[in-house]
Amino acid sequence: MNEHATALPEPPPSLAGRDYLRARDLSAEELGGLLDLGLALKAAQASRMPHPLCTGRTLGMIFHKASTRTRVSFEVGMSQLGGNALHLAQGELQLGRGETVRDTAMVLSRYLDAIMIRTFSQADIDELATWADAPVINGLSDDHHPCQALADLLTLRERFGALEGLVLAYVGAATDVVRSLMEAGGLAGMHVRLACPPDYRPRVEDRVGAEILAERHGGSVSLVADPTEAVAGADAVYTAPWPEPVRSGRAAARMRAYHVDGAVMRLARPNAAFMHCLPAHRGEEVEASVIDGRHAVVWEQVANRLPTEQAVIYALATADRAEAAHEEVA
Ligand code: CP
């Protein structure tokens, strides 16, 4: 047990040794526990009293896609916790030369305390988690971005005090971030309204699953045709980069109906937050006046990646901590 641990909320014991592959992997209590811990870790770091909760532990970070925020926040976060982070780029592992996901998982589990992976296929991440003894954290797949959703919810909690009942309007193409937002927002009892172009709507099964989850926790998830309907009276307006195929030409012209400008923000509540997972493309999904304006909380979202990821690593990757606590009770 860490000597400073008394000053921090304990992570939910049920998370010890688990994977974090989708936001819906968490219960509402686990989600709340991770946010509480993230907030405490952020305060500790701000007062220069970091907690060496992961001394002697190593996080492996597999990246098959570019990253600024995820790469740096996981590495710095692990370093602040007293552990090490090992960057494993595309082409550096035998995985890219025919070694199977299963064998890679078996090998890495013998060296690492946790594995963070950013890759294309969610199925590959699921398979890695199936075979790895070490907890696996999804750092972004084509389908999910659960670490981003945690930082987003912490940002909203800091701004509004509580999450339950908040209305979050998402305007734009339904990409990985949207699935995780629907699930995390639903778990937190929020009302998530989506306005997405016809070619980029969430899959019905994902939306219905998130709707059921939200209803169980007093929230809702709805798909509306018109961005103005989604944004009317919202507490937060969220958008994300347009997919590459619609960033130019006629497709981009059609996407203009789903971009966020000052007129869209004026439909939201006066103190509404503007959110974006970044990287942003000013003049495409959002106007500069909005992302660089008074409503924007994008830098808070960026900052909150770090403590929420630290909370995830600590909660998942220190299973022996939970076992020791269990033995003490017994
Ligand atoms: N939002 C996000 O995941 O940023 P990166 O792609 O830079 O990691």
What would the keywords be for this entry?
330 residues, alpha/beta, Rossmann fold, five-stranded parallel sheet, four-stranded parallel sheet, 13% strand, binds phosphoric acid mono(formamide)ester
Strand fraction: 5-15%
Task: State the CATH architecture of the largest domain.
Answer: 3-Layer(aba) Sandwich
Overall SS class: alpha/beta
Bound small molecules, which ones? phosphoric acid mono(formamide)ester
Instruction: Give the terminus-to-terminus CA distance.
Output: 16 Å
Overall body shape: globular
Strand order of the largest sheet: 7-6-5-8-9
Briefly note the CATH topology name of the largest domain: Rossmann fold
Query: What is the number of E strands?
Result: 9
Largest sheet: 5 strands, parallel
| The top level CATH class name of the largest domain | Alpha Beta
- How big is the Rg? 20 Å
Total count of domains = 2
Helical coverage, percent range: 40-55%
What is the typical, i.e. mean, pLDDT?
94
Q: What is the number of helices?
A: 13
Spans where pLDDT lies below 50 across 5 or more residues? 1-5
Superfamily at the CATH H level of the largest domain? Aspartate/ornithine carbamoyltransferase
In short:
By secondary structure, the protein is α/β, with parallel strands linked by helices.
Give structural notes:
The strands form two sheets. This protein has a five-stranded parallel sheet. Strands 2-1-3-4 form a four-stranded parallel sheet, sandwiched between helices. It is globular. It is an alpha/beta fold. It has helices spanning 28-46, 69-80, 101-108, 122-131, 146-160, 176-187, 204-216, 227-231, 249-255, 262-267, 288-291, 298-317, 319-329, and strands at 58-63, 84-89, 114-118, 136-138, 167-171, 191-195, 220-223, 236-239, 273-276. Helix 7 links the parallel strand 6 (191-195) and strand 7 (220-223). The protein contains 13 helices and nine strands. Residues 1-5 have low confidence and may be disordered. The longest helix is centred in the C-terminal third of the chain and has 20 residues, at 298-317. Helix 2 (69-80) crosses helix 12, helix 5 packs across helix 6 and helix 5 (146-160) crosses helix 12. 43% of the residues lie in helices and 13% in strands. The chain has two domains: 5-144 and 304-318, Rossmann fold, CATH 3.40.50.1370; 146-302, Rossmann fold (3-Layer(aba) Sandwich). Bound molecules: phosphoric acid mono(formamide)ester.
